[in-house]
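Q: Give me the 3D complex with 4'-deoxy-4'-aminopyridoxal-5'-phosphate.
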Amino acid sequence: MSQYMNPRFSLFDAYTPGEQPQDRQYLKLNTNESPYPPAPGVQRAVTAEAVQRLRLYNDPECSKLTQKLAETTGLKAENILCGNGSDELLAFAFQAWGHQGAAFPDVSYGLYPVLADLYDVKAVKVPLREDYSIDDRDYLGLPQGLIVIANPNAPTGLSLLPRQLAHIAEENPGSVVLVDEAYVDFGGQSCLPLIGRYDNLAVVQTFSKSRSLAGARLGFAAAPAALIKDLRKLKNAFNPYNVNSLTQMLGLAALKEKEYYQLQSRAIQQARESTRDALGHLGFRVLPSQANFLFAAHPQIGGEALYLALKKRGILVRYFSAPRTRAWVRITVGTREQMEELLTDIRQIIGGIRP
Ligand code: PMP
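A: Here is the predicted complex, encoded as structure tokens.
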């Protein structure tokens, strides 16, 4: 760091994104991307005309995309705000609603504590149960502030039901309950139908996972109009043109390809279940994930050792060094063939450590 850096950030730990090494071709199972390309209609949206239009500023309100999202979610445009990935919307949420503190699970998306630090939000980390599930009762009657729950949670893949999240919103009328549904399209149940029933319930979703658009950076928030106004104010204070025009077009095209994405999601869920079985047969403990990743631990090899052994063989998975997660690896579910490749290597690694 330079001598010019604000001292407030000298001890600040930023988020470490999943590695994207360029030294060789890896089978990338570390950042929960889709193994499938964006839908054909999305690919066709990248026309010469669309590129030429980059000369102009993009629509800061993402009007067409917002309208289409409103239609597909059954909400009004005033209930939707688009963001540069859902990460950006999470940042706005911490700024808008975290001034009295924020609560989230102790094992969850690593960006939450980083955003809390960045925006000087007092964080309350609510421990998961011993089995890594969220106990919804721990969230009833928390001190006022922001409550953030990834549903399904990451890196566990475990879910709550919408009615449990609704109950949390009911029992915390002084807080905003933000449900991060990055992985909901792989088998979870969305809280979108509950939007508007509670003043304090908001949802964020992303196009990065089930819609194969991680590199386009697109997410959206759905919430009562007053909460969307809060987020929009922060958006317009920070980066009014936050979603570029190509991404707006790609997002719009993606929303017209529901069947394509449902098919891919089903294939990923099938690959997830067969991989979970296979890992179970190899002695792994694997949580029953409803996301596009599996969280797995083996009694004979720690998370870091397995991560390193797989990396040496050209496969990237994610390892988290915190005490509660260091025995585990998080494996993104790819195609069936990719999962076979992973399992072949894991069999060899496990075989090598057996006496
Ligand atoms: N929420 C969770 C739980 C995630 O795992 C991720 C992906 N890292 C995100 C949000 C952010 O996704 P994006 O910014 O790509 O929309």
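A quick observation: Residues 107 and 324 are 8 Å apart (CA to CA).
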